Each structure stands twice: as structure tokens, then as C-alpha cells.
Amino acid sequence: MKYLCVIGFLVLLGIAEANGAGECGRNSPDMEAMKLIPCAEAASDENTSVSKRCCLQIQKLGQNPKCLSAVMLSNTAS
């Protein structure tokens, strides 16, 4: 019975991955990177203050370190 549960879990995990549930859930890291547009000005000019919208997006991404890492490595972020 224990093996059947493990196999069932692995099958469900595989289905979730096949349905696009990656590091950032259903959204791709590139789509999540687009949410960081409010941070662009502060990232390119050290004299610009960081907006509250930028901080909120970073906080959301920071709750999922795997997604944050994937976003930072995405083509959009670079």
C-alpha cells in the first residue's frame, strides 16, 4: 500500500509539471520578470528611489526562492 501511495504521488507530480507548473507555477519566469517593470528605473539609476510597487513585487517573488532565481536568470530579466 505504501508503494502505491508513492507511485500515485509521483504520477501527480509528473502531471503538475506537464501542465506547466514550474518554478513560478503556471507563469513562466519571463512573465514573472515582466512584473518587475516598476523596478527598472531604480535598477538603472542609483539616484532613483525604489518604488513601493517594486518592493511589493520583490516581496512576492521572495516568498518563492526557486521562482525568484528563475526570474533573475530569465531572458527578460537579463
UniProtKB/TrEMBL annotation:
GO MF terms held by the record: fatty acid binding
Signal peptide positions (record): 1-20
InterPro entries the UniProt entry points to: Bifun_inhib/LTP/seed_sf, DIR1-like
GO biological process, one term: systemic acquired resistance
Keywords for this protein: Signal
Name of this protein: Bifunctional inhibitor/plant lipid transfer protein/seed storage helical domain-containing protein
